[in-house]
Design brief:
By secondary structure, this protein is mainly α. Helices cover 83% and strands 0% of the residues.
């Protein structure tokens, strides 16, 4: 059995990995939007302890999704190995997209955590 990937297998694996990463990012966006809306609408009614619980849960979900994203990338790297290094992984566009995704993820998480404590309706 030849250990090298065929072009079709390479395309399929890249598609599955990209889809997995995009799904995790979309889930994070959905969770973030839900937390922001809930914090805005009900934040003035929540005790400080409940706000801390929401912030903790949101942070844990964000970290879990980032770890899942990193695992998907690591798995793709394991299967594709040298192919990624020579063909696509070093592509400046891919590096830019990956970097911006992590920047958006990080800044969005921090902004949402701030919003949980200060962004509710009626806040001074």
């Amino acid at each position: 059995m030849d250990p090298k990937l065929t072009t079709e297998e390479f395309i399929e694996l890249m598609g599955v990995t990209t889809s997995n990463i995009n799904s995790q990012f979309e889930l994070w966006l959905t969770v973030t939007f839900a937390v922001i809306v809930a914090s805005y609408l009900a934040g003035h009614k929540l005790s400080a302890g409940l706000r801390y619980l929401i912030a903790t849960l949101y942070t844990l979900v964000s970290l879990l999704l980032v770890m899942m994203l990193m695992q998907a990338v690591r798995l793709a790297d394991f299967f594709l190995g040298d192919v990624l290094a020579t063909q696509t992984w070093g592509d400046p566009m891919r590096i830019s997209i990956a970097t911006l995704r992590f920047v958006v993820w990080g800044l969005g998480t921090v902004a949402t955590l701030v919003f949980i404590f200060r962004g509710y309706r009626g806040a001074d």
